[in-house]
Prior knowledge:
Blueprint: H1 3-13, H2 18-36, H3 42-50, H4 56-68, H5 72-91, H6 98-106, H7 115-135, H8 138-145, H9 152-165, H10 167-193, H11 210-219
Helix pairs in contact: 1-2, 2-4, 2-7, 4-5, 7-9, 9-10, 10-11
Amino acid sequence: MDIFTFELEAALAAEGCPLCRAEALDEQRWMETFVREGHRDAGVRRRYVASRGFCPPHAGLFLEIAREREALPVVSAACARLIDEDLARLQGITRRARGSRWHMVRARRQPGGCPACRARERSAERKRSFFCEALADGSFRSRYAASSGLCALHFSSAIEEASRHYPAVTELLLDDWLRRLKALRSGLSEFERKRDHRYRHEPRGREQQAPIEALRHYAGTTWPPMALPIRGDMPGR
């Protein structure tokens, strides 16, 4: 079993969109590499400075992982590079022109995009392609059917990928999406019914989770990737 299959199957066994989970894991893995060793690479440093650092969500992830690894000096060094760059820009602008030109310098923040965001997009493309290819396999298909399914965003991107390369998977995804929408709507209807005073005496069940499941279905899965039981569990390791 290769690592992509293993990670996707682990994601299918957990709650929420499997591609959200798999991509979040890749996102964390990329940032851990950056904290551990990537920041030492000259090319990575140039791209980090050129992009004006990380976007707010990835800056938060950067800080979280650095704290976990007791690697705040990496954060300090990364920020120092940005500060030095800004100082050089500011000092290169004459005092008289600073008020009119500094806003132009600030407006060029992240011209190439957050480096972690770019890495995430590349990873997402690979994951979508592999996911659609895996769905062509019957055993993986049955595990997907028993999972929480894709969120709306990943459903759309998977359909786009499948329509180009895996026509049979397109129909499978559409049928599965319709089935899940009907089940979600039924759960919401039952949730609303039991809010009626006439039925409040009835035992509460799974329908109480229906609003949360529906929200996740459209907004995606935002749980930390650490919830996936895959660290160090890869077969053969």
